[in-house]
Amino acid sequence: MKNILYVIHSGTEGGTFLTNNDLMQNVKESYNVFLLASELNSLKLFKLENDKLILIKKYSRLKWSVKNFHDSWMNYVYFDILNNFKINLVHIRHLLNHSFDLPQIAKKLDIPVVLSFHDFYFICPFYVLLNENNQYCKGICNNNDINCYNPLKSLNDLNSKKIILKWRQEVSYLFKYVDFFITTSNFVKELFLSIYSDIDENRFRVIEHGRDFPKLSDTYFEYPSKKNPIKILCPANHLDLMKGSEVIKSIKKEDKENKLEFHFLGTCFDDVDKYGINHGRYKRDNFYKKVKEIKPSFIGVFSIWPETFCHTITEAWSCGIPVVGSNIGVIKDRILKEKGGWLIDIYNPKKAYNDLLKISNNLNEYQKIQKNISQMKFKTTSEMALEYLEVYNFLIS
Which of 12, 228, 251, 265 has its CA 20 to 30 A from that of 391? Predict the structure, then answer.
């Protein structure tokens, strides 16, 4: 079997790892799977054996800086891995905590490179596209030098507006050594094409995330009623500013008569748990148990950044629960496309609150949306993997 190297920006947890692991577990019959995960002070190489990731080599280093686009030490590490482990294909899922050298080194060794857009890192190092006012910027910088919203401490030494021209020049150069681009939605694809017009659209494919859900026979929601507060469940392992903590607080402040009851799953930040009921952290495996205990009428997805897929929406629909979500990015696109919920204006809390009450009072519309959801079919992880394998096999055939 041939050897594939996946490249991510963190160890063995977090959203990128989980979605990448779904893919790795489904291609292991076709490829020997290696994983290169980068932390601030080290790179770790794993091999997938018997469904488990085994650490086979650790490369220690000085602290990483986003300003170092190219790094001779990382050049050595990349070459060492590609050469010594006879890698036949590289799939980059993220390059945070990496340098930009890997695609070029792979090309020198005649190894094809696939690059996924997990977020907007290759548009801006502050990868959530929020400006200094915490509003979605569409990848277009304004003319002042006020730093944008910074999602990560390791980027604290950076002003995104001062580096953005250099950043995109370096990214454009990196893209020359990429053989195929993949992302999870047309929205993300079109945004990248609008900024990097040199990308070959024939080598750019949309593959939505697959998920494996259990067959559910129970009811996990309750119909909204004027007799009881309307329960809106907001699941997010980190319910912070980016995930809509301030949006939720602003909406709840409009709720003078306590008609809405927010419920939270995950770690809450910004004191948002004072505006509802916190049910603690959850893992994929116990999501349904938690939801069944709460029985919300809606799942709320109030992210202020334009998410690139949003697994929470898929999880909500797998429970048969309508979504009320942000009117930006993929959240907006998926809700409109699938007719699986309603959009709210995250920049206008008073209007959002009134719209939530209107939605809750229209039982016929709720039942119509819920019926749409009950007829949805979700792509499995094995179906997703087949689409990736088509790309892999095309590149190394």
Answer: 12
